Amino acid sequence: MCFTGGFAIAAAVEPAVLAPVASQPSVPFPVSARHRADLGVSDGERDAVAARVRDEGLCLLGLRFSADSASPATRFEALQARFGDGFRVIELDSSPGNPNGFARSSHAVLTHETVDRPGPAHDAREQVLAFLAERLQAG
Fold first, then answer.
1. pTM of the entire structure?
2. What confidence tens digit (pLDDT) does each residue in 96-126 have?
3. DSSP E strands, the chain
4. Per-domain residue ranges for the chain?
5. What is the DSSP-derived secondary structure letter of residue 130?
6. Separation CA 77–CA 75 (nearest Å)
7. Which of 30, 69, 91, 127 is the most buried (most CB within 10 A)?
């Protein structure tokens, strides 16, 4: 979740981690342009995960609300630049006037905003479950 986004990426250095999910990764806090693009991992961890993406087909999943300044688009752009197709994004529209009524301040994709009724937050949760099932299925 927000305080552990970088942890999900760093944990993917370990071969046993097969389905890392970073939901609204907010740390390091995006207080500067450099921090907004920071993945929250060391260069070695980033490179090791990139090697797993390239060599093993590892895939990471990231979730965020489109207007969430705590989990900035710049960070997701940096993740996509580094991991390419090995980084899948689920982004929920929280722009002003969005059709689902998400507030611009919406942040917690898989907890606060997830409801048990049809809609994009519920769909995001279902996509995470499908990702976990796909990546963790026994051989």
1. 0.89
2. 999 999 999 999 888 877 667 788 999 999 9
3. 21-23, 60-65, 87-92
4. 2-136
5. H
6. 5
7. 30
